């Protein structure tokens, strides 16, 4: 039986910025679109955060289960996996994934009932995307499509969805925020897969990093990190306060440094954490800027 500490590690709390950042950015866009805090439905923002956190923990457990039973995690460089390490039964990890999806689905259903019923369909697509990333007979994460899914679900859907449920509208400001958050969230997956190129190649997991190779994957990662900085400049057209987002540049540099210095394996783990922090910092700074604007 896995210990509580191992379950927490299996949930991969370092990925929580991928869930929190899009909600923060979406609320910031909603504040700007609505004109002030009184125009934002704050309890819906809280529910959106519950959905995002529940789904990302569910994704982590689902990946743990699916990769574990396939043997993909037998030679793991990064954080421990519950199934791959033998710490927990596969059935228990699978159940934990679906409990998390259930919590997210309930919170999402409340948002759908009080906002728009088509959100139910969107939520179902999100759950299916989470499970079939590494689950099922032909997981799309094994064919180099994981980055597209992350950009879509943790960028476009999460940011614009939050803006919509909290303010009743979406606009170009929200779209720019969604592209920025989606890009840096994708960068987290890119550097993770960069680290795992040797083990993924051996296990037959053909990620985008495996397809591109080491050098081009590093270039893709750096390019994705530049998007939030460009987004801050674009958002300056809405309010000059958005240039505050450029203050995240030192954190982005810390994230990029190991990649630019050709680090491999465990040497890339600091980039994972720093990328998540950069995403959260940019989202907070931008949300504050849009609120002021």
From TrEMBL:
Which InterPro entries would you find in this protein's record? MenA, UbiA_prenyltransferase, UbiA_sf, UBIAD1
Task: List the pathway annotation.
Answer: Quinol/quinone metabolism; menaquinone biosynthesis; menaquinol from 1,4-dihydroxy-2-naphthoate: step 1/2
What topology does it adopt in the membrane? Answer: Multi-pass membrane protein
Q: What enzyme category does the UniProt record give?
A: transferase
Its biological purpose is as follows: Conversion of 1,4-dihydroxy-2-naphthoate (DHNA) to demethylmenaquinone (DMK).
- Listed NCBIfam families: menA, PRK06080.1-3
Protein name per its UniProtKB record: 1,4-dihydroxy-2-naphthoate octaprenyltransferase
Per the UniProt record, the source organism is: Gordonia polyisoprenivorans (strain DSM 44266 / VH2)
């Amino acid at each position: 039986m896995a210990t509580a500490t191992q379950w927490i590690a299996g949930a991969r709390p370092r990925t929580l910025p991928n869930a929190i950042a899009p909600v923060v950015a979406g609320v910031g866009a909603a504040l700007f679109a609505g004109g002030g805090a009184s125009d934002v439905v704050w309890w819906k923002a809280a529910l959106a955060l519950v959905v995002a956190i529940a789904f990302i923990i569910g994704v982590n457990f689902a990946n743990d289960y699916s990769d574990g039973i396939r043997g993909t995690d037998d030679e793991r460089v990064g954080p421990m996996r519950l199934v791959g390490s033998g710490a927990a039964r596969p059935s228990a990890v699978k159940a934990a994934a679906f409990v998390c999806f259930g919590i997210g689905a309930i919170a999402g259903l409340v948002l759908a009932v009080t906002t728009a019923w088509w959100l139910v369909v969107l939520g179902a697509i999100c759950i299916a995307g989470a499970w079939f990333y590494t689950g099922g007979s032909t997981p799309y994460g094994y064919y180099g499509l994981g980055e597209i899914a992350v950009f879509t679900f943790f960028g476009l859907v999460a940011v614009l969805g939050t803006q919509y449920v909290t303010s009743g509208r979406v606009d170009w400001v929200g779209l720019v925020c969604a592209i920025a958050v989606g890009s840096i969230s994708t960068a987290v997956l890119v550097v993770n897969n960069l680290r795992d190129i040797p083990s993924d190649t051996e296990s037959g997991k053909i990620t985008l990093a495996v397809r591109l190779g080491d050098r081009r994957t590093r270039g893709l990662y750096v390019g994705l990190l530049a998007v939030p900085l460009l987004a801050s400049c674009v958002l300056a057209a809405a309010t000059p306060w958005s240039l505050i987002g450029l203050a995240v540049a030192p954190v982005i540099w810390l994230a990029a440094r190991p990649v630019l210095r050709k680090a491999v394996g465990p040497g890339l783990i600091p980039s994972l954490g720093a990328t998540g922090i950069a995403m959260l910092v940019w989202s907070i700074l931008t949300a504050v800027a849009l609120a002021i604007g």
